[in-house]
Design brief:
The protein is an alpha+beta fold. Helices cover 16% and strands 47% of the residues. Strands 1, 2, 3, 4, 5, 6, 7, 8, 9, 10, 11, 12 and 13 form a 13-stranded antiparallel β-sheet that branches. A hairpin with a 5-residue loop joins strand 1 and strand 2. Helix 1 packs across helix 2. 9% of the residues are buried.
Amino acid sequence: ILHFLDVALAHVGSEVEVECRDGLSAVLFIFSIFILFFIQLQAQKTVYLNNESEIIKDKEKASELAMIRKNDKDPQFTVEFFSMNGALLRIAQYSQFGKTPKKQILHGKTIYKFPHSEQDSLVCFYRNNLRTGGAIFYYPDGKKHIDCSYKNGNLDGLLIQYYPNDSIKRKDVYEAGIATASSVYSEEGTF
């Protein structure tokens, strides 16, 4: 319920002032909050997944927990994956999220997390289960490790890898997953 109230208040503003002359405004406000609460409950589903990413009913055999949210204004599903001890593993957008991996279609932004950390390890985009678009890999401390792009699941375009001190380690150019050019640099930046 507290999560719902946070969501509801976000919809109506971070600071809410209710002026009540006859009490009707307060009743309407509270009624609106409850309507938003029930809409939120209907739009979210929690499922358990096994090691093969199949939805299962037996919590004891589960390796992950997934919270599936559907926004009426967006055709995508947003799915948050958690370890069984509650650690956030990744957040992904799907065009379809069925019972088996064949019916789970990644389509949109996906954020992977380092184990036991809030830090992103990879942010990338998918189109029909293929990486497509920009991707950024991070070091555990949050600094950028690799910046690259994909097309139809293959590296395509410029890939830049960084040292932990933020200097460029290498630059590669890819076409359809094949490196066509490469440059390697020392940590001091010399070629």
